[in-house]
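Pasting two entries for a bug report.
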Amino acid sequence: MNTKAPVYVRAEDDAWLTVVYYHVHAWTGRRPFWAGLFTLVSGFPIAYFPYADFRLGNLSLAMATTGGAGALIIGVLLITLGLALWFQQAIRVFAGVASILLALVSLPVSNLGGFGLGFVPAMIGGALALAWAPGTPVDETDAAPAGDTGKAEAMAGGPQGIPAPRGTETAYASETTAHADGGRNSAG
């Protein structure tokens, strides 16, 4: 979510399609949209291929396997997790881990994860769900001017974000042996 993006204010002469576009864009910016989309899409080939029946002329190729019920369950769960990522952002870590685990389980159960067409998007969707974090708006009072790097250097401890060395190793040392030298004990 880009907190510095301009906020759209509807004008009276805007077309309805423009208004819908900006509302959808704002909706997708506040949630792990792409993670949900990849996870949602991955469920369809995983659930479809064990029940697929290809016909080439008079030749019928059935892909029915004994794991058809398991593949259907995995596919439906991935579709459900994809929708949950869109509407319940709080469960993004659970949904990400669950979609990765379901993708791995789909390899032996569902024809190599729907011939890779379901496995790869499920892995990508799970990784995106784990990587997504909700944006927080920046307070204008806390924002520093663009050229002011003195505060950033002071917080990092040194130039270019390199931490500065500590003043002393025994800053919190006490008189007892167990706490001497910052908790590091020496023999003898």
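Entry 2 (this is the one that rendered wrong in the viewer):
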Amino acid sequence: MGDLREPLRDLTACGLPEALEVMGERWSFMILRASFNGLHHFEEFLSELGIARNILSNRLARLVEHGILDRAPCAEDRRRIEYRLTEKGFDLLPAMLALRQWGQKYGHEVIENPVLVDELDRLPIGPVSILAHDGRILGPADLRLVKPETLGLRADGSRAEAGQRLELGSYAEDPAIRAAE
């Protein structure tokens, strides 16, 4: 990715260590997957995931603490607690899908059933991609690290003009996802 490298020893200079601190273990991802599948209550998570009660309690508290899930009394029965994805939680969907696709590609005999599809045409979703500011799909050879003060400065010295940006709608505002809650 060019001559410039990230400061690999400096954990604060990158979002990856922060994300791994919050989500870096199996049960957090499994709880998040269950939330995307419409689970909201402690007992649902407990029975569906087969997770130990103390681990579930710890992971739910951690996800709430980091703003991934909201914890609130259930509207029908104020004694029950609901856990719902926040906007920050919904923003993890592309990362979850990328990891899922990677696991399906390189896992041993992983068969997708049910199949995740596009709501409009009910065909399987495509691979999660890295997109340029204008929507072009990028590969590893297209990526380069630059200093903030050189943003838009091309290798030939010319300056890039901001192109038409592809608007990627908010997952939290998607009615299909909201209906699944």
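Dev reply: Rendering is fixed now. As a check, the viewer should reflect this: Residues 122 and 138 are 26 Å apart (CA to CA).
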